[in-house]
Please model this.
Amino acid sequence: MCGIVGFVGSEQAAPILLDGLARLEYRGYDSAGVAVVSEQHELQVRKAKGRLQALSDAIHGGADLKGCIGMGHTRWATHGAPSEVNSHPHVSAGGKFAVIHNGIIENYVEIKEFLISQGVRFKSETDTEVVAQLLEFYYHECHDFFEAVGRVLRRIEGAYALGMLCADCPDRIIAARKDAPLLLGYGDGCTFLASDATAIIRHTRDVAYMEDGEVAVLTADGIRVYNALSQPVEKEHHRIDWEVSAAEKGGYQHFMLKEIMEQPEALRRAIFPRIRDGKIALGGMKLTNAQIRDFSRIFIVACGSSYHVGMIGKYNLEHLLHRSVEVCLASEFRYSDPIVDEHTLVIVISQSGETLDTMAALREAKKRGAYILSIVNVVGSSIARESDDVLYTWAGPEIAVATTKAYSTQLAVLDMIGLYFGEVLGTVDPAEYGEVVAELQKLPEKMEALLGRCDDIPKYAAEYFNHNSVFFIGRNLDYALGLEGSLKLKEISYIHSEAYASGELKHGTISLIEDGTLVIALGTYAPLFDKAMSNVVEVKARGADVLALTTESHAKEMAKTVENVLTIPDTARLLLPSLGVVPLQLFSYYVALQRGCDIDKPRNLAKSVTVE
Ligand code: G6P
Model:
């Protein structure tokens, strides 16, 4: 959700903060603000509703705010509408403290009432303002910034990544973390605070991840970190190894298009090091074969598109492992009293590694004894660190809110887990194993070829962009793929869209099909192609406008019934969604482009959802 950046050094802070915020804007973009400490030790705070550009224009690219220490925030509203007054930094009534926050202070109402009873006047509707006000309240008692922070942290409940400035201590930022991501950056004569590395990688690659309960004091000379008992902690340093350019548009109009195009390369990174002599080799995984044999239950837990990867994983893993696999939305799993014990494997999937519901589900499963194997993109993220085992997708930074390359690489890694486990369990047919491994190796190349010949998609987008309701239909893997296709479309183009298992049409949905309704019929899954065709005929008979997706080998057959057909190369059955998703991503992209939508930052959404 919200993005946080902080800087302490000898250069002007404001331009560094604005640059960092620009790279974090995908986390939230309804308002933004900065606080910079002046040479006279005053807190200068500027905020603006709307995109970061509005703030940048208001302070002339940072030139208006002089000072070498400061922090910035880009907001995704939870408490209080997007507005200047509700945006961060929040300043205490006496003007001594400025606070930026990502997360939710759950007991803010009670604290607010207490402070109001003490005569404190609030300006905003936010939960965050209580932190600024409470800091000042405790500071009046103890006259010590660090101690006041400690008292605040003992009083507040909820999730937070906090950055705090005090006018009386103009050389430092104090940061605190609980259940929301925050990392520290070590520069030459300067230090940084950030929600994620994209914000600071131009300045340093030397970072440390804050843990829950830790408090950090950042000065130009260095960073001191303390645990919840205020004991000093030695932080392990990590080196960010991707290039700055990976988080830039590189000539593309949108990050989303760039990331779609990067998929073959991302797949190479995810797949090639994990295949040796025709065998899947999950290097670094700690799970033993004995443990794999011992699992009696398997869950896949995730949110959003990662959940859709899990839906495909369910079909593929059940096929390869001959075991039932339950796929659960993390937000449901965590409250569902799941039947999980020490013979349970929970596969957690998350691009960001920070999604709060997914994290909570992980902790719940762990508490019940499950073994946690996660598939994560962001190296060093919370989910990666709390899992028993992690397989990284190595997709590189993904900036567009709508995921593309992370989805594809998650899918490939999950398929590889299926193959690996299937071999250990002796449940996978050796011929199929060989075929899927060979096709996995060809996947990047086939996707490249597919991307190179998707020229007809903008034409279809131009034809269909005015529809206001779309149905994706398919069976088996095509149904799971349809869920993702439908989500992509609604996320970025705001067209109402739903995905249905074709067999369910007759149980209700078909009543919604009328003249001109757009139906995207997915017919890539060869074993059920004929059945898929029957459903196409049914919706056509009721006037639907059909756009079909199938494999090259079925294109002719499909064309007998449907005029507009998108095709993907043939591949192993299990891998069809890996190719099938590409035209659907591009279709959504071009439809959103036609509709003039803000593709990389769709309304109301944020990339990393760190609140419930
Ligand atoms: C948000 C993003 C989605 C993503 C979901 C889960 O909704 O917009 O693209 O699939 O969160 O995120 P995660 O980082 O856990 O995969």
Q: What stands out?
A: The radius of gyration is 25 Å. The pocket of 6-O-phosphono-alpha-D-glucopyranose is lined by residues 303-306, 350-352, 355, 358, 401-403, 605, 607-609 (CB under 6 Å). The CA atoms of residues 311 and 480 lie 6 Å apart. The first helix runs from residue 13 to 24.
